[in-house]
């Protein structure tokens, strides 16, 4: 058994080294496919990061009418906290809103003069509400539109923020579909290239294959070198792609961190090291072996 495996490995390595141009072409195409798959994986991570950041920054501002008492507002705040999708609520009274405005514009005398000329506090009490998931916007809207609460509310910005979040989720979904479509195209191209490379190797060794078949060699013994050759294609493509992405993400990680809203590509790469490693090596070796298997199976039949 060990001797057979040794011969299979030797035949596979000889064939791998013999057809250099075909070998380089197969490795290049698999590397390109893995590079694109990994790129979309990192882009998905970026999309999720930006979505999470936006959800943290975006909140719903619910403004109450002038005559609504603070007890009524606190009652609504308490009831809102009982909703499953509500993550956090911050109450800002009229006085607090005026104080924040004055602090923010303390260097702008014109703004403060306008407030003084009004002779009264122009701000409304507000509840700033954060929802856990984008489905929570509908639940919050239904709560605010009840008869008991609707007459107390002056206005809110649910629809504007809901539109932003839904657009971002839609972008993420569209990106996944596009990545799947492009990935399938390159997988098909990879299978065809490796298929033709294996077929060329079979053609160059057709006499040896005929002799092995005539003396009763098993299909596994005949297919083994070509399957292993396909695995070599995928493994070397994996090495090229993995270290290329590691180096590329390291170079752009800090440089583009500010531009990407705090997302560091290299930190994400390191944090998802095992997942990226498994995706690349399984896809690379798998594509090489599957293509070789299809080709050898067709030839033996």
Helices and strands, with pairings:
Layout: H1 2-18, H2 20-57, E1 60-64, H3 70-81, E2 86-92, H4 94-104, H5 109-118, E3 126-131, H6 136-144, H7 147-150, E4 153-156, H8 158-204, H9 206-214, H10 219-253, H11 265-271, H12 273-300
Antiparallel strand pairs: 1-3, 1-4, 2-3
Helix pairs in contact: 1-10, 2-8, 2-10, 2-12, 8-10, 8-12, 10-11, 10-12
Could you please describe the fold and organization of this structure?
This protein is an alpha+beta fold and 301 residues long. The protein has 2 domains: 2-54 and 166-300, no CATH class; 66-151, Alpha-Beta Plaits (2-Layer Sandwich). It is 75% helix and 7% strand. A 4-stranded antiparallel β-sheet has the order 2-3-1-4. Helix 1 (2-18) crosses helix 10 (219-253), helix 10 packs across helix 11 and helix 10 runs antiparallel to helix 12 (273-300).
Short description:
The protein has 301 residues and is of the alpha+beta class. It folds into two domains: 2-54 and 166-300, no CATH class; 66-151, Alpha-Beta Plaits (2-Layer Sandwich). It is built from twelve helices and four strands.
Which stretches of 5+ consecutive residues score pLDDT under 50?
none
Largest sheet: 4 strands, antiparallel
For the biggest β-sheet, the strand order reads 2-3-1-4
Tell me the β content: 5-15%
Cα distance spanning the termini = 25 Å
Compute the CA-based radius of gyration. 31 Å
Helix and strand content put the structural class at alpha+beta
User: Based on DSSP secondary structure assignment, what is the total number of beta strands?
Assistant: 4
Please bin the fraction of helical residues. over 70%
Specify the number of helices: 12
Shape: elongated
Which whole number gives the mean pLDDT?
A: 78
Integer tally of domains: 2
SSE string, helices as H and strands as E: HHEHEHHEHHEHHHHH
